[in-house]
Amino acid sequence: MAKEKKKTTKKPEKAKPKEEVKEEKIEGKEVGKITHYFGHIGVAVVELTGPLKIGDKIRVKGATTDFEQKVDSMQIEHEKVDKAGKGDAVGLKVKGKVRDNDKVYVL
């Protein structure tokens, strides 16, 4: 005697609700964003929206970037500077790879 196979119909899966993207609250004040990155020398160009000076502790945060570091070297038009303000485009030596539009915060 052959056993009969039961035919089962698969129920369509319910659509899973989309996970809410929670924006992380970052301590510190946003002082600029990355506009360019020179990977071969590890320097980022930051368009400042606030003041920044040598010795400040910063955090660089983006979609795939997230690290903190101390500002050790800063230049404007190839001239070393100790501080810069809103509207300046500065070159910063960074310890990790950054991408355009990553945000820079002073902690």
Number of alpha- plus pi-helical segments: 0
Class computed from helices, strands and strand pairing:
mainly beta
Q: Which sequence of SSEs, written as H and E, runs from N to C?
A: EEEEEEEEEE
CATH class: Mainly Beta
Terminus-to-terminus distance: 78 Å
For the largest beta-sheet, the strand count, sense and barrel status come to:
8 strands, antiparallel
Tell me the fraction of residues in β-strands, as a range: 35-45%
- Percent in helix: under 10%
Identify the overall geometry.
elongated
CATH homologous superfamily caption: Translation factors
Give average pLDDT, whole number: 87
CATH topology: Elongation Factor Tu (Ef-tu), domain 3
CATH architecture: Beta Barrel
Q: Would you report the number of β strands?
A: 10
The total number of structural domains is 1
Strand order of the largest sheet: 5-4-10-1-2-9-6-7
Describe the structure.
- Helix content is 0%, strand content 41%.
- The strands form two sheets. The chain has an eight-stranded antiparallel beta sheet, with no helix packed on it.
- The chain has a single domain, classed as Elongation Factor Tu (Ef-tu), domain 3.
- Strand 4 and strand 5 (66-70) form a beta hairpin.
- By secondary structure, it is mainly β.
Task: Briefly characterize the structure.
Helices cover 0% and strands 41% of the residues.
Question: Keywords, please?
Answer:
107 residues, mainly beta, Elongation Factor Tu (Ef-tu), domain 3, eight-stranded antiparallel beta sheet, 0% helix, 41% strand
Write the layout of secondary structure elements.
Layout: E1 29-38, E2 43-48, E3 52-53, E4 57-61, E5 66-70, E6 74-76, E7 79-80, E8 83-84, E9 89-93, E10 103-106
Antiparallel strand pairs: 1-2, 1-10, 2-9, 3-8, 4-5, 4-10, 6-7, 6-9
